[in-house]
Records
---
Amino acid sequence: MTVVTKDIAFQTKGNCDIIDITPQVAKKVEESGVSNGTVTLFISGSTAGITTIEYEPNLLSDFEHMWDRVIPQNIPYAHNKTWGDGNGHSHVRASMLGASLTIPFVNKRLTLGTWQQIVFIDFDNRPRSRKIVLQIMGE
Amino acid sequence: MTVVTKDIAFQTKGNCDIIDITPQVAKKVEESGVSNGTVTLFISGSTAGITTIEYEPNLLSDFEHMWDRVIPQNIPYAHNKTWGDGNGHSHVRASMLGASLTIPFVNKRLTLGTWQQIVFIDFDNRPRSRKIVLQIMGE
Amino acid sequence: MTVVTKDIAFQTKGNCDIIDITPQVAKKVEESGVSNGTVTLFISGSTAGITTIEYEPNLLSDFEHMWDRVIPQNIPYAHNKTWGDGNGHSHVRASMLGASLTIPFVNKRLTLGTWQQIVFIDFDNRPRSRKIVLQIMGE
């Protein structure tokens, strides 16, 4: 049994930018030397979230509109008085969606569905440099 | 330390069908030969989600109504123009709820509460054949 | 590779009480003797949830108000007819947010961001004694 720590770094545009990180995650798992196990993806930060989705432009737009309806940007957030950076909605969305995702792999392949990609969603209100931690565990 | 991969297959009715998979998960963990560790449940697909709930008919109905209010079926979804299969809401709900759940077990027993069951929710708009991956890891 | 099971016990006030459990989790990981791996936090119960957030009073208030808007307490819940304990909203919120969170650690340190804390949210409508299971796995 082995533990291999990797990370993935990338730039985002912020404002609900949805990034497909599937190819990078698949590559890190393949390179790890671990055949069967899990990869835990974790976001070190409090204004972004992680999930899976069919990465198709119309659906990405539907997903973004859902956030605008359910946790709107243009309502008052007390947090915006704390730092004055106007990203109260970003934090609330991130805490709702969650910062971790654990995906099994078998024979070095992620057990994703055919129409299912791993996505990082940057809820912050400005472009950001981001880094995700990958903890690959197995044998 | 061992990694044991199992799966659970079942039929659903779709349309927010909520399936209690606790007995099957408990059985697979018991049969795995692993005493202490975690089971990661993962949905290979993009129109279903996984969580825990008290599996009680009235509460299941409350949970379903929550989805109808928060991410309704009968509003426009751009995704419905992509494939024409009318399940835009199914995808958005699935991405919100999440595709993975990791549960510890101790002495071959899941650490669930007394009134807490593991549920698979099929958000798709038609009956489906489903399969969940279980990655059982521990010693 | 080792599996170390720990737990954290505490009292809550209920009613969306948000408890910062970061120091306790960090301490348990440090004491475990495991250097690199993951800690899976799991809530044994069906009226509480777990996530990460910037633990800042104004943001906590924003997060609580989000729940009041999205899954209100003062609408009818069928579950309230089952047991008569008036916590239908607590269950629905808990199932939406999720009962598990898996966080990597490297050299005995959690890979949290600077402004990111681990929080337990008690959605129940009364004070509760709570216990979280920590499954620490790694080498």
---
Amino acid sequence: MPDRQFVKYTFLKVDPAWRRLPDAERAEGKREFLAACEDYGAERLLRAFSTIGTRGDCDLMLLAQATSLERIHELHVVLGQSGLMKWCSIPHSYLAMTKGSEYSDDSRLEIRPQHSKYLFVYPFVKTREWYRLAAPERYRVMQEHIRIGREYPGIDINTSYSFGLDDQEFVVAFETDDPGAFLDLVHRLRGTEASAYTKRDTPTFTCVATSVERALNALDGASLDVGLESLAS
Amino acid sequence: MPDRQFVKYTFLKVDPAWRRLPDAERAEGKREFLAACEDYGAERLLRAFSTIGTRGDCDLMLLAQATSLERIHELHVVLGQSGLMKWCSIPHSYLAMTKGSEYSDDSRLEIRPQHSKYLFVYPFVKTREWYRLAAPERYRVMQEHIRIGREYPGIDINTSYSFGLDDQEFVVAFETDDPGAFLDLVHRLRGTEASAYTKRDTPTFTCVATSVERALNALDGASLDVGLESLAS
Amino acid sequence: MPDRQFVKYTFLKVDPAWRRLPDAERAEGKREFLAACEDYGAERLLRAFSTIGTRGDCDLMLLAQATSLERIHELHVVLGQSGLMKWCSIPHSYLAMTKGSEYSDDSRLEIRPQHSKYLFVYPFVKTREWYRLAAPERYRVMQEHIRIGREYPGIDINTSYSFGLDDQEFVVAFETDDPGAFLDLVHRLRGTEASAYTKRDTPTFTCVATSVERALNALDGASLDVGLESLAS
Amino acid sequence: MPDRQFVKYTFLKVDPAWRRLPDAERAEGKREFLAACEDYGAERLLRAFSTIGTRGDCDLMLLAQATSLERIHELHVVLGQSGLMKWCSIPHSYLAMTKGSEYSDDSRLEIRPQHSKYLFVYPFVKTREWYRLAAPERYRVMQEHIRIGREYPGIDINTSYSFGLDDQEFVVAFETDDPGAFLDLVHRLRGTEASAYTKRDTPTFTCVATSVERALNALDGASLDVGLESLAS
Amino acid sequence: MPDRQFVKYTFLKVDPAWRRLPDAERAEGKREFLAACEDYGAERLLRAFSTIGTRGDCDLMLLAQATSLERIHELHVVLGQSGLMKWCSIPHSYLAMTKGSEYSDDSRLEIRPQHSKYLFVYPFVKTREWYRLAAPERYRVMQEHIRIGREYPGIDINTSYSFGLDDQEFVVAFETDDPGAFLDLVHRLRGTEASAYTKRDTPTFTCVATSVERALNALDGASLDVGLESLAS
């Protein structure tokens, strides 16, 4: 049986002062950050997303997965040594684990984003009333929710669990190429019985899928190749 | 059939330290920002508003529209390269999309601000009870709201939708030349049945319509022409 | 018929680093700020208050009134050019308008502070239940509130309206020379029927009335005359 | 009849950068702060407390009392001129007045801390339901509260009132040498009928009573005598 | 009879600018911090945890215990003198005391973490309704909670009490080597009757147990030995 995975969403905000540094220094800091990601991603899931233009409080999100919490910790220690992280804060951070779902028989011991163009992420807390319902009643309520979701086959969901590990109960990540369809789905789900048991589902992040390198380039509009040239001169 | 549009409200706050920079450096930073806006606005909707004097937490708001989210993302990457953004934070940011309304048959696939003098913007969240009402009941409740609104023909509304994309459900933007009439309208709407289903409608922004150039000039009281002279000397 | 007025409360916090500047630079920055206020105040209401010692999050409050929102905007653009504002943030800001009251026949189209020693200011939001009451019922409930207020003739009230313009519904400003009597009045009003319809009435600011010059001198304990001497030497 | 007093709790947080200044500069800044306190305290109540180790958001608390609000204002203007305050923020600030209590016949027109080792301070807001109870009912409910309090004779209470003056309704300050007994008392009071009418009683500050000089020395672990030597060398 | 203990959880966040200091300066600052911890820990409980990778708002947590509050205060004064603390803020801080539990006869006058790999910490506030229940009813409700907890023998709990001392009522710290089991336990406890009386149980911290030295090394990825070499060269 496969292991459960730790799942980490780390949202970074770059200090505007970083953009005032010399080109070569910025390029070097990004290259160190990229190296840490490539090292980690060689054997485990690591994905990068840009939130520039979709949020005001963060610029880049890393999604990392590992079977050991130590590996998640080490990734962030190594990232912290990069020149880029010396100018970053982490305004949002979500730690979670995978777990078999009680509402479906899919194996859910890994999250497996499908390389869609967008990821929509939010921390999720249900009301305590929800947990006081009997299991068959919760199952019944969820069927409407699941049924509506199935009408949108281009939208996949990755759910992970944070009970006792972080401030939320779940971290929910939807992925799709079609933001309008996703918006319409969420709008429709507001009317379901399950929706009344939502206590918190914000902040809600629209994340643009990209490579680590391109997410880094978006921070200052400079490609790492240009940076290399700057260093060489 | 026309495409749905992405709508982005980006509120900027300039670090007070920026105003301590040399005139020429400020002018150059503003000019780069202006160029990014002009480039974007050549083919799409981009409007600028000043919030100096109406808010304490922001100075300038950009309203941008595009059929692709990538274009919104790219606009903010290019803005980020301007000298001005190296001294700015984004304290408020709202991402939304257009959508046909269920309460009227107007085509609403674009927002079309009418060059009124003021725009009043707020993120909007309704209670979950609202969404549990049957559609005919919601329709009935909205009629009183709409009827009162029609008594104020000088006030137009632009609604966009953020379900699943951002922290709010709607972004509402009223425009008018007459703030007193708008205040009276909002006061009257407090007594409607629909109003009881409001969960959150703050922060509320009074935005003064202007050109990008004038919004930039208001940041330091210096016109870009003066800045050019400073550079030349 | 006189015009309705825009009313603006702007609370400033000076960066502690400003107090580390040379005397002459601070004096110059204050003098520019004072000049902007004197220019505005020559034709319109502009009052200054100190909150040093009464609040931790702000130092100085300006109360400005104008028949046009552009004039309020311009005042803040000109203030922003002063040396002092290059070291200030605006932690609290309230925009409002005057309006005839539905509970009294006084003309209320201007706020007219009477030069009392203290001004007590707070943003005010009522519950939605309040607005669902029939007008005669609201009128009845307000009578007890008004009757108690009249037992304190040394306390005057200036109410302005922010529906749709800012985050609050009202900005309430009481003025008196006797803070103890005001405290006792507010304590008594807690027991009225009207009080149950209060949703928010904080932050609450105790503001010490003074001249702009003295409010500026309180920021660094240096009078502008001393500053002038410093510049001359 | 004695006058009512203004009571001010000012909590300071020192910027970590202050600790990087030269010894002599820190000592000079503390000495100026101390002089302002000694001058004020010569004729009025001024007490100092350290919150280092008990809170993360503040380092030092000053409790000042005066019959005039101007004197409280002036104290803070003079403190602001000290070198220390050029590196401090005021994350918490409570303004209040004394008032005769409706539940006991003690004279309460002054707060008189008894030099206990600890002061436990919190701002306090009751629910509006509390104020709607008839006075005899409120009196009845308070008797249980007061009776339990009397079982802890080593714990004294100083209550002051902030209605209309600041964000809270009361500022409550308990003093004792025995924190464990105080904790047990507060735990027991949770079960009283009165407790159900509490709307807010945080933040809660554990304050270690000390002299101004020792509270200042705790900020950088340097005694002012050492500082004098540094200046002399 | 043994004394009750004070328990302090201090969460530190290092300013990103600290990582831009020369290696030797960082090493020296960490060494001073380590010395303060070793001195304190020689006679009392002091444990270090890293939150790098699990949280975005803090990097390191110290858990300290003492029979006197003065000793906790002094620890933080001495820590404040270290070079490291000149670049740190304390975003979270919890002060508590031990106390015999009313639900079990275990002696609980000390917290005794068992060197598990992880500590899960959160401040805890119950609803006022909880405290209004009769003691036998509270006892009954807790039995289900305790019974479920006993099904997870690899998870220990350390509870301390903050009534009147800090913003929360309890500080709860679970320890285990198995985060997945702990997550499952917390998920199951959501359905208990006791869970309905939870008012607040966030922020929730996943803390990785380590030595002080290793927690410090994780801050900049540099071991103190390397630092010593840097100083020697």
